[in-house]
# Entry
Amino acid sequence: MTSTELAGVHFTPPQTVAGESKHHDRAAGQNAAVAEKASGVLRDALSGSAEIDRILLKAAAGAGKSYVLKRLVSDALDHPKCLRVAVMAFQNTQLWSLAASLGKTLGQHEVCLFSSRAKYEEVPPDVHAHAAVEVSTSALPDCGVVLATSHKLGGSERGRLLDRFGAAANGEEPFDVLFVDEAWQLPNHLFELPSKLAPIIVGVGDIGQLPPLEIGVNPWRGDPGYNPYRAWPTAYVGDERTWSAELPAVWRPTAQQLALWRAFYPEWAELDCVAAPGDRAMEIEGLAGVAQAVWTQVATGTPVLLEVDGLDEPEAADVDLPLIAVVENLLDELFAAGFALKKVLYDDTGVPTGQVETSSPGAASSDEPLVVVLATRNQAVDDAIGAVERLRDRYGLTENDLLASTVDSWQGQTNGITVAVHPLTGAAELDEFNSAFGRLAVTCTRATHGLLVVSRSGLDDLLSAAPARPGTPFGEPGNRHLPRQTHQRILATFNRGVLTATNGK
# Structure
């Protein structure tokens, strides 16, 4: 292993690299094979030839799970013993793109978004164009697919749905199948009532998602027997009436990020990515000094951790203006110089189409932001928002060029370059918040082109001194037996740089 010093930044290459992996249609085909198996199990469950009540498809971040879910919805409706299905998620925004996409595939007459009154005005025009949108049960059309949040389908909704539709083909419940998107984000107590709406449940989701409620308020914390805040699929691990499988390919990351993805899912038999080396590129020019050194490393596609030494003391772990100033200065020089993100486009099977998409500030070609600044604590995000607003004013940028968000709010989203404040920066010890598997997973798995994580120096010392915490706290997904070693395993996949600040900034 060798290290490099450029413009005052000392870089050490990753200790762990991805090694052999499949790309393009060889990778994507693995997901298609799992989807085919799941479809067969679902058909058998509907026919009654298999005693299966639940199908769980585990996805890593960016695995294309929505594509698989939409296929299973179509396959279910094609079955003679399936009259009507529901698609449920925790958040309204998760359902909007699904509603529009399903409407395009199945026809507007077959799809209805069952919206809350409070969110009706926010429903995008694309959803209205391809699906019915209603706010009351009595107004629901006689269609094959109803999409709604877990809150909308809870309470006494089962009786009203039976009054409106009658029983579906199963003869007892209003739906034949209940599909749950982002299933691992939904806790037991929000799943309990909607689960009675159909005899067959299909859960699809990223097992690294954060739960919708902060675990700090959980009164059953640490109780292995009953925890309603635990993600509901965890209750069915090893259950004989539950069929589960992993989607072994991801579409989002660069090939150079694959070792990081695998570090979050070490127990998976296989994890490959569709993007091959060279399929994603970050083109930059006109930089010099520290900015050139840092952004050149980010442009390789390998995750970069920049630890900064010599900063003035922060007010608190979550109020660190000197560290945010480092982020602002790096972004300032990047946008001043100009850059472009390029990516090879694929068809639905992962085969390159021969087209290359180019995005740059002011000329983004998709709705995904070019650069997103993420932090875990609200105060740190407030400071980051201030930096982002100054940069927007300076360079005439839009939210599609640059924005800041909390990690919790950004889960489920995708962007080109992620600049993130490490959850452990400035921490005195590991705790339930800063060492949460899901929070770190969301931080590190949003980017399609490059990841830059910044922190004050001292992460290695913090982790080496942290005591082991056995058990699987709160039923969170992932390998949680030794959070200290989990963090160390993840950091081993980063290209690590050390920057010594001058004059405390």
Remarks:
- DSSP finds 14 helices and 21 strands in the chain.
- The two ends are 30 Å apart (CA to CA).
